[in-house]
Every structure is written in structure tokens, then in C-alpha cells.
Design brief:
Blueprint (H helix, E strand, L loop, with lengths): L1 E3 L16 E2 L6 E2 L7 E3 L11 E5 L3 H4 E11 L3 H7 L4 E2 L4 E5 L2 E5 L2 E2 L15 E4 L2 H12 L4 E9 L5 E10 L2 H24 L1
Antiparallel strand pairs: 1-4, 2-3, 5-12, 6-11, 6-13, 7-10, 8-9, 9-11, 12-13
Length: 198
């Protein structure tokens, strides 16, 4: 982002400036007759109203060491989508598993939608959608390396489509959990000190 100019310098065909010019980038008053030679500003990303976090597994990073993550699609019934738009879901006690050549989300809770003519079971198994390549990688990670597939976030993406972020993780032992908790406490204390000194 740059804004430069020379006092009293006019480019051909530009109108003369009799009033001080305020630079739109740096919000700085320039001398009369000054013309910015180059102004460049990155467009700020607009908030997308479709993006919405529905449920988050806050203990995932405490209980597990997340090695990698993967965004998955999810097959839902109409009543489940309407229920999710009301933020009635919980994935804290759920897990993902590769079974019979498919990836499944198990024990995730989506509250029944009372207005639906055909409802759904709140904790039914739901199929997750990934490519065959990713499915083979997940099978290898879980069956051969002993990793666990942990649902981390359930959300609507920028197109308004429900997605699940799955973490490829390994369970932490008690000392690792204590170290994670100590690190988290230190981060909170540091932020508190920064706010007090600001």
C-alpha cells in the first residue's frame, strides 16, 4: 500500500488543486497542488452472511494432538439442515470412522425439527463425503498408524453448504494434557497483561 506525491507537481491534463488534498490511504493532509502519483489499496474482504459456525468441539485440541485436518461434506436430511440453521447441534461426543469403504460421522447430535413432516433420528450415523484418495489416506492413518478421526467444527461454508472439519489426531497422555492446559493459561494471562498495559 503506497501513496506518493510531490508538492506543486501536476501531471498533464490534471486539474489544479486549490485546496489541501487528503490522502485516502494514509489519511494525511498534502500540500495544495499535490497529486498522488500512485495509490494502491487491497480490497477488504466482506463478511459473508452464509458462513456460520454451528457446533465446535472445544476439547478436541486439549484431548488430542491434531496432526492434520480435512474438510468433508455431509449427507443430511431436509429436517436436519433446518435444525442446524437454528444452532441445535453438538459434536463434542462424536467421532468419525472409515467403515466398509465409506466415511461416517457417528454420535453427532442434531436436534429434531418439530415442524418437519418427516423427521430424523437425532444421533443417527451420517455419511461424510470425501474423495477416494482422501478416503484411502484416512483408512491408512486409522488402521495402520492408529490415528483417530476427531470432528472439530460443524459449519455452513461461504456457499451455505454444511461441512465438517475432521482432525487426524493422536490421543494425548495426562502429562501432555497438563502441558497444554499450562500453555493455555499462560496465553490467557499474557493477553490479560497486554490489555492492562495498553
Amino acid at each position: 500500500m503506497r501513496c506518493t506525491g510531490e508538492a506543486g507537481v501536476q501531471t498533464p491534463g490534471s486539474p489544479s488543486r486549490s485546496k489541501p488534498f487528503v490522502c485516502p490511504v494514509f489519511n494525511r493532509l498534502l500540500d495544495p497542488g499535490t497529486r498522488p502519483l500512485y495509490v494502491s489499496a487491497m480490497a477488504k474482504p466482506k463478511d459473508n452472511p452464509n458462513y456460520k459456525v454451528i457446533a465446535e468441539n472445544r476439547r478436541a485440541r486439549y484431548d488430542y494432538a491434531i496432526d492434520d485436518d480435512l474438510e468433508c461434506g455431509i449427507q443430511l436430511m431436509g429436517s436436519e439442515v433446518k435444525s442446524l440453521r437454528q444452532n441445535t447441534s453438538n459434536i463434542a461426543e462424536s467421532y468419525a470412522a472409515v467403515e466398509n469403504g465409506e466415511l461416517w460421522l457417528v454420535n453427532a447430535y442434531i436436534a429434531p425439527y418439530e415442524q418437519a413432516m418427516f423427521g430424523h433420528e437425532d444421533r443417527r450415523r451420517r455419511k461424510l463425503l470425501v474423495s477416494r484418495k482422501e478416503l484411502a489416506r484416512l483408512w491408512n492413518e486409522t488402521q495402520r498408524k492408529g490415528m483417530t478421526l476427531v470432528p472439530m467444527v460443524l459449519y455452513f461454508n461461504h456457499r451455505g453448504i454444511a461441512k465438517v472439519k475432521i482432525g487426524i489426531a493422536k490421543g494425548k497422555k495426562a502429562p501432555d494434557k497438563r502441558a497444554t492446559e499450562a500453555k493455555r493459561d499462560w496465553q490467557r494471562q499474557k493477553q490479560r497483561l497486554l490489555r492492562q498495559n495498553a
